[in-house]
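User: I'll paste a sequence; please echo it back and then give the predicted structure.

Assistant: Echoing your sequence first, then the prediction.
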Amino acid sequence: MNFGIIGAGMIGNFHAKAITAMEGGTLHSVFDLNQERADKLASEFGAKGYSDMDAFLGDSGLDVVTVGTPSGAHLDPTLAALNAGKHAIVEKPLEITTERIDQLTDAATKNGKTLAAVLNRRFHPGMDAFKKAADEGRFGVLASASAYIKWFRDQAYYDSAGWRGTWALDGGGALMNQSIHTVDALLYLAGPVKTVQANTALLAHERIEVEDHCVALLEFESGARGIIEASTCCWSSDGHPARVQLSGTEGSVFLADEAFEIWDFKNEKPEDAEIRSSLMKGQEAGLGANDPTAINFYQHQRNFEEVVTAIKEGREPSTSAAEARKSVELIQAIYESARNKGSLISL
């Protein structure tokens, strides 16, 4: 399938690398409001550059569009793509409110096109093993399910673009922007949340509207309890990995980025020895923890390949709009609780 990219910045470059490496997809074109920027990225990958959206979407050779604009500017280009008869894969978050996500979902349904999200932290061997264990009920009674994203962004990061740190275009701070993939992973593994109480703060940055630190207390539908701690205030020389931790009456697994710190079950299975041999954590730096460019594109590649396969098979992709909506719904509830001095919010 022929892919087109909307947005020729850092994310667009990232998408271009993933598309070029994937099976079942070819980079066909690039759109950016700045023609020079569109041409620059397009020329690097043998594609066509556009600065006219109608011409870009009117190209009959284009099948799938990826959207890499700022978070709060996903709605209009994605709607345009769907209404032009193109499939769409949208960066995180799919949009910054569930209302906008529902609007996009309706457009996809109306046009008979696939709408999917970039949920790239679902696509690595560690997550595959973790999800299998969770689905098999290996934790027994799940008691604890938590996520910790203790990352760092300096002031220059927020000053580098006017949209950063704004409610309108970032949709939130450390939680919505930096932590949404880990929030998605937590929900993917532990299931839906029933209630939440939260507190947010702006501790270490200036000239931004949103939080740089957040702590939320969760009650899951399963009865498990947990915590989400999200920050861009936590400096370390290499960067702390994003962690997802599940523990229950029969096992505990602690995932740090793509490797395990703990893989321990009361009832051993043959695959456990191999997992501990090949997927346990060393001293790797946190992926993207201090530097947002230090993220491997192969997870995006697998994400894109899954969407193409789903389109060909006529099914919903595993990173569907419905899946992407779950993390945004939870984050909205966390922000609502924080605005109301930690009040209990039901989802």
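The first strand starts at residue 2 and ends at 6. The two ends are 38 Å apart (CA to CA).
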